[in-house]
Predict the 3D structure of the following.
Amino acid sequence: MQAPRSILTVAEMGAVDRAAIADGTPGLTLMERAGAAVAAAIRARFAPCRTLVLAGPGNNGGDAYVVARHLGEAGFDVRLEALGPPRTDDAKAAAAAWGGAAQAVKGVFGDAELVVVGLFGAGLDRPLTGEAARLARASMRDPSRVVAIDLPSGLSGDTARPVGDDAFCAALTVTFQRRKLAHVLQPARERCGEVVVADIGLGDVRTSLFENAPELWLPRFPWPKVIAHKHARGRLIVVSGEAWRTGAARLSARAGLRIGAGLVTVLSPPDALAVNAAHLEAVMLAPFETDQELGEAAEAAEAAVIGPAAGVNDETLANVLALARTGAALVLDADALTVFRDDPDELFSVLDRDDVLTPHPGEFERVFPGLLRSAQNKVEAAREAARRAGAVVLIKGADTVIAAPDGRAAVNLNGVPWLATAGSGDVLAGFVGGLLAQGMESFEAACAAVWIHAAAGAAFGPGLIAEDLPGLAPKVLADLTMLS
């Protein structure tokens, strides 16, 4: 199995480039490799056609000159428009090797059937203006014929947002060596289209940010041993809401059981026992009336899930504090987070590194007010939240981010829109809890649960509802055993 794939900041990517050059690889050689990789990706997807190549004055523009040369040699009808003369030595050499005419950027795509954008790279720090801004707006109307070199021009590689009002949209983005933050975080991620990562012979850099893929956590996955029994596979409890709010807890419980926990129990208020009993089979059921009784019932559990439809009330707050005293690894979702909105420090004071918080952005705002807005990007917000809480923080969304208190973070890339359905988050909480119950470390458990959750959603596709997700997990798990 290959090593986990890192995600780089603009500064880290610059350091990788400089290190390669210092080790003896000329910058022009790297530019030639980059341009050739972009041209190869284009040829694999597009037949020769009328092609407009847009070149900026820096090294991103130098890559564009190389692309233009390769596409011209492959039979594409290439027109190159430049945003001024090249300024770096490598870009000047690439322009000379292109050898064709370079017209001034006109601000319209004209009759081009394909547009290759190499105006500015990931390090852009000023807004697009003039003709470049006009072209960016045109790309938003029809990104299907736009290819971006490294990153759609106008986006910041680190903030994953447009630098100003305008930024290009592309159907294909070809980047080099590793994804950058803008390739994985919204809103930039959506503007990149398909992202191809081309190996151009660079080294790597030590980083604590990774793509969330099996390589990151599969070596630590808690597969059962031949001699396993149900108690050895872990005990998970899930706290039910009141009688009219029980479905969410059952979704979490079933998810925990499907992902491998040996014993799963729904702990239920007395008035919800009958409705829970009518729907549970392999999942067990036990009553509790007070937070003290809840804590006693949870003493033997390795993990506990609380929050899904628990209710935003004093009882839920007391129940969270009681569970925190048991030593079980906690998964806190939804209402179990919102009840601490007036005093998040009270929550943080009882958490430890084994616990996992699973907020969507609205819930995150209640516990970490203003942090998503003030942080440079979602990864930095998640890292700071994990540091404050002293626990793993999983911010759900189209670009789910998982962060640990020690600074490790991962961004999930296999999410699908079918997961945007009621109850989906309850299943995710159960997946996390089920893996924690089996002894998986909290950061890896959260990453694995997110990936499996998304893979299950992709396997079903349109029409998915949350009740489908637990039953889809076994096929995903079976496929993962083939990789182990």
